[in-house]
Write a sequence for this structure.
């Protein structure tokens, strides 16, 4: 069975290797350059100094990290869509390795050849799914390691690795997505028995579950936290401390929202000898006493907890789909 | 005589439709049996039940004394060629032979490759590039390489041209003659199988209609030609039932099943071909013939 699996999938192995080389050719040079600039520009050191402090002082010289980060993003921000592109890699694995696995056998009728040899269908399914699953695990591990390394400077410059789509490209979640995509492909193949419908089902199912988990479930894996700070303040939140800001808004003293999805920061009329300080006068509009910013967020320290929870969800879904696929192979296909 | 295939009240349902129903039959060892019936009669379903690809919804099926779907060890003792001889199109013949070796405990690779060499099947081409006849031969060689005790073939010659049909059946008979392998092969045309089979199972509308050895069936059935007779007139002595009759102004032709010699001098008797016999039964779903004294000889014509 092992030889059989190799013989049937050696071409796909070749394609995967070519794909990995292509991705590496894209990732390694850009990644090396980003890492160099990240260190040389002093952004790395600056971020290390600031750490994950919740608030930073407003004012010249106190916020140089943000300045450096902006410079870094100005140079490399156009690489960020690449990371989004990599979000489809697990899907590709599910479409091209998972969906045809059983569907192609049934489409060609070869399941009747191979399932009437001296190997039980259970054994066939276990070895085939096991080997393909292991292969996909290896692929996913390789590219998540590569991507996690590549994206690290962008994490720093963006201030968070927790935001949607960035979170999804690193750590261990790509492994969960990949296993889920493959299992979904295999299961869809056992239901449709045709490659194209199985691929279509995989595409739709994968995107639906991913959006649902990322958009609806993930913000609530743990109780969200609130952070309030006055519009007029000497300090503002450290935007680079890795928190995942889920909602921001401006509220008045009685707790009524006056502006959604906005934050405002007014310099206090302080005696600080700031050259940019406006001369004393009437309070500028929007900076009235009592107005405060509200942030609803997940702290950056929960990153790995969230990674584990999300990976767990997808691995569990994959396990259920594989069990159903084995059942269908044994009982439902003839 | 031992039994290779035995079904009792076997049924398989797809949704609300029975593809096979109340199928009770017994296939003795050493026979080459033709499973004949129109398209959709349940032939493929019966074969799939026998090789364990399907599980019955009613009744039981036993192959070599074991239950196919529950007993994967049985798979090493039977050979099966599915309809259209499915093969992995990107495999070469040596790949397929290696596959057989890896997946079967009992495997005679040399036997199979010697057969295919004799048939001049190219070994260096992917089987997807071979002709239909060559593919069928490869599929047969793979099934025979298991040295099966029971070989089942689903419409093996349906897609072949007449010459390839003949060659395939020759190869089949050559391949099973020495081992005394029991063979069950299905076809919607009995003419294809007439030359090779010595046992007949006719399936019609998901039920068994005719079952028995070809020799016995041919001996039992005759064509009678005699003077025109009225429809209600009694049949001559020795006739058990009239399967089909046709009349001209002057004479009547009856296809009958006999239970004794026809001695009435008014009738001339003529033997009939297996094909005529099968067609006569298929034309009349209410008629049926099952083996005489048999523990399973129940009336399936109802």
């Amino acid at each position: 069975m092992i030889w059989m699996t190799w013989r049937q999938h050696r071409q796909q192995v070749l394609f995967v290797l070519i794909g990995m080389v292509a991705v590496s050719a894209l990732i390694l040079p850009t990644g090396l350059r980003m890492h160099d600039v990240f260190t040389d520009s002093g952004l790395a050191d600056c971020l290390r100094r600031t750490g994950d402090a919740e608030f930073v002082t407003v004012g010249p010289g106190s916020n140089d990290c943000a300045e450096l980060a902006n410079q870094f993003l100005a140079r490399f921000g156009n690489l960020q869509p690449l990371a989004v592109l990599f979000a489809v890699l697990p899907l590709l694995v599910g479409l091209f390795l998972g969906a045809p696995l059983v569907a192609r056998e049934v489409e060609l009728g070869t399941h009747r050849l191979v399932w009437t040899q001296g190997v039980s269908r259970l054994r066939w399914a276990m070895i085939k799914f096991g080997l393909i699953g292991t292969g996909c695990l290896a692929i996913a591990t390789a590219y998540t390691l590569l991507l996690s390394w590549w994206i690290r400077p962008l994490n720093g410059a963006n201030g968070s690795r927790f935001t949607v789509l960035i979170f999804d490209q690193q750590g261990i979640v790509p492994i969960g997505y990949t296993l889920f995509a493959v299992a979904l492909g295999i299961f869809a193949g056992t239901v449709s028995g045709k490659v194209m419908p199985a691929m279509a089902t995989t595409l739709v199912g994968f995107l639906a579950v991913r959006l649902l988990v990322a958009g609806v479930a993930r913000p609530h894996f743990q109780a969200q936290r609130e952070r309030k700070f006055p519009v007029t303040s000497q300090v503002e939140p450290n935007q680079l401390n890795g928190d995942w800001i889920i909602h921001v808004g401006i509220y008045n003293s009685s707790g009524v929202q006056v502006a959604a999805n906005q934050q405002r920061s007014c310099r206090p009329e302080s005696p600080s000898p700031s050259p940019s300080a406006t001369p004393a006068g009437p309070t500028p509009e929007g900076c009235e006493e009592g107005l405060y910013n509200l942030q609803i967020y997940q702290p950056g320290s929960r990153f790995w907890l969230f990674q584990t929870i999300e990976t767990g969800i997808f691995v569990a879904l994959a396990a259920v789909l594989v069990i159903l696929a084995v059942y269908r192979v044994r009982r439902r296909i003839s | 005589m031992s039994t290779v295939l035995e079904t009792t009240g076997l049924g398989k349902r797809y949704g609300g439709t029975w593809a096979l129903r109340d199928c009770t039959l017994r296939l003795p060892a050493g026979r080459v049996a033709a499973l004949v019936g129109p398209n959709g009669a349940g032939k493929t379903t019966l074969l799939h039940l026998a090789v364990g690809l399907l599980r019955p919804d009613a009744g039981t099926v036993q192959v070599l004394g074991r239950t196919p779907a529950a007993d994967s060890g049985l798979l090493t003792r039977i050979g099966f060629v599915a309809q259209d001889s499915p093969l992995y199109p990107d495999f070469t013949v040596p790949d397929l032979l290696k596959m057989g070796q890896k997946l079967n405990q009992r495997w005679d690779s040399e036997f199979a490759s010697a057969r295919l060499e004799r048939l001049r099947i190219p070994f260096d081409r992917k089987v997807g590039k071979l002709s239909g006849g060559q593919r069928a031969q490869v599929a047969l060689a793979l099934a025979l390489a298991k040295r099966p005790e029971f070989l089942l073939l689903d419409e093996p010659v349906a897609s072949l041209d007449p010459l390839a049909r003949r060659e395939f059946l020759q190869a089949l008979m050559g391949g099973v003659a020495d081992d005394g392998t029991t063979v069950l092969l299905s076809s919607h045309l009995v003419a294809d199988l007439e030359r090779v089979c010595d046992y007949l199972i006719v399936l019609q509308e998901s039920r068994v209609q005719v079952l028995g050895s070809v020799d016995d069936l041919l001996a039992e059935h005759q064509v009678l030609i005699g003077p025109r007779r009225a429809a209600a007139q009694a049949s001559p002595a020795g006739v058990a039932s009239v399967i089909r009759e046709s009349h001209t102004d002057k004479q009547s032709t009856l296809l009958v099943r006999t239970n004794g010699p026809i001695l009435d001098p008014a009738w001339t008797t003529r033997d009939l071909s297996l094909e005529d016999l099968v067609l006569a039964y298929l034309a009349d779903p209410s008629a049926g013939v099952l083996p005489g004294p048999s523990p399973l000889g129940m009336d399936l014509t109802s």
Remarks:
- Chain A has one domain: 2-222+311-331.
- Chain A has a mean pLDDT of 87.
- The radius of gyration of chain A is 26 Å.
